[in-house]
User: What shape does this take?
Amino acid sequence: MTQDIVEAVKKAKEQSKPRDFTQSIDIIVNIKDLDVKKPENRFDEEVSLPNGRGKDVKIGFIADGELAVQAKSAGIDLVIDKVGLEEIGKDRKQAKKLANQYDFFVAQADMMPLVGRFLGPVLGPRKKMPKPVPLSIKLEPLIERLKSTVKIGIKSQATIQTLVGTQDMSDDKIAENIETVLATLDQNLEKGRSQIKSMFIKTTMGSVVRVI
Assistant: This one.
């Protein structure tokens, strides 16, 4: 299937009109023979794309003390301490804004009860509850991994749509990222990728190109 994917990526790029920004490239996968009403058929996975996302990832870090200092030094976009966490928790509008602005959240493990209390109602439904990390963690490897991570899953519909790169990445690298996403379907679907009903590739503002 790889060559078909490469050709579809190339076509999606060619069909897309020039824009004044770098467009993302997404895949849309429709699954057949899957009853999403059954809990065992739903899943949420984080997939590390071998060639990265091609675009920046915004990370929110919830920590106090030394770990907060390390997070700031590591270039984390947003660092929230206990006081800030409580303030945000009292302002639902601000909490929702942060939840929508940031791709991933990470939290000092012993602060997770507070996170659940103040931000759980906002982050939970968006599947953005923070990853708990110990005080001893080395942040750089975690940050690098998150920068190449996308979330895929099936909840209420048998359809997956996810970012697989940007238009300035090579066709082959995007195709390799797509194959990695499909490998995750092999792990989570009873019949693997043979349950794919249809698959499309599109740029942010472009029309869809059918692969299958």
Summary: The longest strand covers residues 24-31. The helical segments are 2-15, 65-73, 82-89, 92-101, 112-118, 120-123, 139-147, 171-188. The beta strands are 24-31, 43-48, 59-62, 78-80, 104-108, 131-133, 149-154, 159-166, 196-203, 209-210. The longest helix spans residues 171-188.
